[in-house]
C-alpha cells in the first residue's frame, strides 16, 4: 500500500496515518467492525458498522486527540493544552491528557449537553463554559491560549488530528475488505479527511460519501458555492459546525465524491434503529451515516457500505424523547383528541372501545375549561400504546363508527 497519485500533495499523507496508527494503538480500542444482517435486509445494501462508540470516551475523537498529544514537546506538555469542543474532542483531550500527565483546559459552549460536560470534567479537565455556540467557545479558547501560554489543539483543522482520525478507515478496510462505500459524518471535516486519504491509498476504488445535518450544511455549501444557511437545534450536535476547516475543505474537495444532507426526522429514526436493532447507543452525529442510507436508499442499493458509528455521548433525556417520538411515528404510541358530549358515561364509553380493541391507555387529559368549544363542549386527549400503525388506524375508525369526533396529535 502507498499514496496514490494526488494524495501526496495533500497536507496529510497515508504515511502520516500509518504512523498515527502505530503511535495510538497501544492506548485506544480497536473497535469491532461488524455486518448488520438486519439493517442489510431492511436497506437493500450490505451494511457494516464500526462501533467507535465503544471507545473509552465513547467516540472516535480520542484518536486524533491522542496523536496530537503524543507529538508535543516536553515544554508544551508541562504548560498544558487547551481545546474548544462541544464534547467528544474535549473528552479525548481530557482523558489522554490526564493519562499522560498533561494539564488540559476545555472551553465548551454554555449549552453543551450536561452529560458531555460532566464526563469531560470526570476525565480531569478544567472546564470553561463560554458562548452560545462552538464559534464563540473557539474564540475564547484562542484568547486563553495566548494569555496562559497553552498549546491549542484544534478539533479538526490540524494535520495530526486528521491523521489520527484516518486510522478509523485503516481498521475498517482491513477488517471488512469487501466495503466499497464509506458514508462519513461531516462537521468540521477532520474524520472524512483522514478516512478519505486512507481509503484512497488502501483501496482507490472505494467511494467516500459525506453526510451532514440539513440544519448545518456548511461543508456542502463550501463545495457547491451555495449560500446555505446554518443554524437551529439539531440532535447531531457533534456535526453542528457553521464553519468547516480550511485544511479539511481542500482534502474534501479533492477526495470526497458527494455530500448528502439529512433532516432531523431521519437522524432521530437512525438513532432509534441502532438502539432497537443493534442494541447500541449512538448520538445523533454518530447515526448520520445510517440516516443517509434511510434518506437515499436507491443511492446505495446493492453496495457494501461501511458506517462509522462515531460516538455514543447522547443526553439520556434526549435519547428518551427520540425513542418515544420514533414510537409515535411508527403508530405504536399516539395521542388522540376525542370530542365528547357533556353527558354521563361518555369517557367510560370511549375507554370501553379502547379495551375492546386491546389498546393500552397511558394517560388521559380531560379538558372542560381551557377549550375553544362551547361551555358544554369537552374533549379528552388520550395517550395510548398500539401494536402498529394498522392497529391505530383501526382504533380511530372504530371510534368514528361509534359517533366520536377524533383527531390525531401528530409530531414533526
Automatic annotation (TrEMBL):
GO terms for biological process: isoleucine biosynthetic process; L-serine catabolic process; L-threonine catabolic process. Its cofactor is pyridoxal 5'-phosphate. Pfam families: ACT (PF01842), PALP (PF00291). SUPFAM superfamilies: Tryptophan synthase beta subunit-like PLP-dependent enzymes (SSF53686). Its EC number is 4.3.1.19. Residues 335-412 form the ACT domain. GO terms for molecular function: L-serine ammonia-lyase activity; threonine deaminase activity. The keyword Lyase applies. Gene3D superfamilies: 3.30.70.260, 3.40.50.1100. It is an enzyme of class 4 (lyase). It catalyses: L-serine = pyruvate + NH4(+). Keywords: Lyase, Pyridoxal phosphate. PANTHER family: L-THREONINE DEHYDRATASE CATABOLIC TDCB (PTHR48078:SF6), THREONINE DEHYDRATASE, MITOCHONDRIAL-RELATED (PTHR48078). NCBIfam families: ilvA_1Cterm, PRK07334.1. This is Threonine dehydratase. It comes from Sphingosinicella soli.
Amino acid at each position: 500500500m502507498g499514496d496514490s497519485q494526488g494524495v501526496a500533495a495533500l497536507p496529510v499523507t497515508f504515511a502520516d496515518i500509518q504512523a498515527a496508527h502505530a503511535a495510538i494503538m497501544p492506548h485506544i480500542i480497536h473497535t469491532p467492525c461488524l455486518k448488520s444482517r438486519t439493517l442489510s435486509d431492511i436497506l437493500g445494501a450490505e451494511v457494516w458498522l464500526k462501533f467507535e462508540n465503544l471507545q473509552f470516551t465513547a467516540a472516535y475523537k480520542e484518536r486524533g486527540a491522542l496523536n496530537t498529544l503524543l507529538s508535543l514537546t516536553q515544554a508544551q506538555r508541562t504548560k498544558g493544552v487547551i481545546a474548544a469542543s462541544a464534547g467528544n474532542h474535549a473528552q479525548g483531550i481530557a482523558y489522554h491528557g490526564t493519562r499522560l500527565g498533561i494539564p488540559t483546559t476545555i472551553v465548551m459552549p454554555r449549552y453543551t449537553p450536561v452529560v458531555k460536560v460532566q464526563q469531560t470534567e470526570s476525565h480531569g479537565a478544567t472546564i470553561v463554559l463560554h458562548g452560545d455556540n462552538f464559534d464563540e467557545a473557539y474564540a475564547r479558547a484562542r484568547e486563553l491560549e495566548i494569555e496562559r501560554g497553552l498549546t491549542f489543539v484544534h478539533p479538526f483543522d490540524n494535520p495530526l488530528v486528521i491523521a489520527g482520525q484516518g486510522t478509523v478507515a485503516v481498521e475498517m478496510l482491513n477488517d471488512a475488505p469487501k466495503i466499497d462505500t464509506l458514508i462519513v459524518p461531516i462537521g468540521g471535516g477532520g474524520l472524512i479527511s483522514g478516512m478519505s486519504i486512507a481509503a484512497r491509498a488502501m483501496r482507490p476504488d472505494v467511494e467516500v460519501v459525506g453526510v451532514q445535518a440539513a440544519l448545518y450544511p456548511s461543508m456542502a455549501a463550501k463545495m457547491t458555492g451555495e449560500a446555505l444557511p446554518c443554524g437551529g437545534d439539531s440532535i447531531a450536535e457533534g456535526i453542528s459546525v457553521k464553519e468547516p476547516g480550511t485544511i479539511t475543505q481542500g482534502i474534501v474537495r479533492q477526495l470526497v465524491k458527494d455530500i448528502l444532507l439529512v433532516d432531523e426526522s431521519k437522524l432521530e429514526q437512525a438513532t432509534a434503529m441502532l438502539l432497537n436493532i443493534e442494541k447500541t447507543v449512538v448520538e445523533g452525529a454518530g447515526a448520520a451515516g445510517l440516516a443517509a442510507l434511510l434518506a437515499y436508499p436507491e443511492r446505495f442499493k446493492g453496495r457494501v457500505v461501511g458506517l462509522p458509528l462515531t460516538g455514543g455521548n447522547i443526553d439520556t433525556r434526549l435519547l428518551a424523547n427520540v425513542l418515544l417520538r420514533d414510537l409515535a411515528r411508527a403508530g405504536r404510541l399516539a395521542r388522540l383528541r376525542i370530542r365528547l358530549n357533556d353527558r354521563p358515561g361518555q369517557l367510560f364509553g370511549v375507554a370501553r372501545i379502547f379495551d375492546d380493541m386491546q389498546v393500552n391507555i397511558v394517560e388521559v387529559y380531560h379538558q372542560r375549561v381551557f377549550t375553544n368549544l362551547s361551555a358544554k363542549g369537552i374533549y379528552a386527549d388520550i395517550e395510548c400504546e398500539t401494536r402498529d400503525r394498522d392497529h391505530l388506524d383501526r382504533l380511530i375508525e372504530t371510534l368514528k363508527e361509534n359517533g366520536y369526533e377524533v383527531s390525531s396529535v401528530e409530531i414533526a
